[in-house]
Amino acid sequence: MAGATLRTLLLAAAVAAVSVAVGCGGDAEEPPATHVEVAIHYSHFQPEEIAVPAGVPVTITLLNDDPIEHEWIVGTPDVHERHRTGTEPFHDTRPTEVTVPALSTRVTTITFDEPAELAYICHLPGHEAYGMAGTVRVIEG
Q1: Radius of gyration, CA atoms only, the chain
Q2: pLDDT (tens digit, 9 = 90+) per residue, 34-70?
Q3: CATH number reported for the structural domain that contains residue 104 in this entry
Q4: Contact yes or no for 35/61 (Cβ under 8 A)
Q5: What is the span of the domain harbouring residue 45?
Q6: Between 60 and 86, residue with greater pLDDT
Q7: What pairs with residue 63 in β-bridges?
Q8: Which tops the pLDDT comparison, 9 or 131?
Q9: Largest CA distance in the chain
Q10: How does strand 44-46 pair with strand 116-121?
């Protein structure tokens, strides 16, 4: 009988520890990710917001499920203004500017130096106006 009581007490203690570790953080944000998948479907990004750590390499896999090409440009407002009026037809020389051909996958790795909130947008004609945009939240690691 003493063994059963000890087991019950240990089980209760374990449940309490898990409850404290997990249960109290119901509203806590997920920690920033070092690998993120961004899907492109019907000319929209999913998810529309990602959180990544500052100062750590982050691998981003871009999955284009559409039968047309898209681009994934992440940056500050001045970067996006340059692309709205620019003439670069193809991107793959900068890790923050990626062309994703139809029905394909591209992978890029970026280290964001400091906390920031940056937009990612497809600047192909009409895509941004259609809602093809999202946000990268760079969080202190």
Answers
A1: 21
A2: 999 999 999 999 999 999 999 999 999 999 999 999 9
A3: 2.60.40.420
A4: yes
A5: 35-139
A6: 60
A7: 39, 105
A8: 131
A9: 80
A10: unpaired
pTM score: 0.76
Report yes or no on 14 lying in a domain. Answer: no
Contact 55, 141 (CB under 8 A): yes
- pLDDT value at 8 more than 60: no
Say what the pLDDT of residue 24 is: 41
Torsion angle (degrees, nearest 10) of CA 50, 52, 57, 58:
-20
Q: Tokens in use for 77?
A: 């407002």
Where residue 131 falls (left for φ over 0; alpha for ψ -120 to 50; beta otherwise) is left
Residue 88 domain flag: yes
Per-residue three-class SS string for the chain: CHHHHHHHHHHHHHHHHHHHHHHCCCCCCCCCCCEEEEEEECCEEECCEEEEECCCEEEEEEEECCCCCEEEEEECHHHHHHHHHCCCCCCCCECCEEEECCCCEEEEEEECCCCEEEEEECCCCCHHHHCCEEEEEEECC
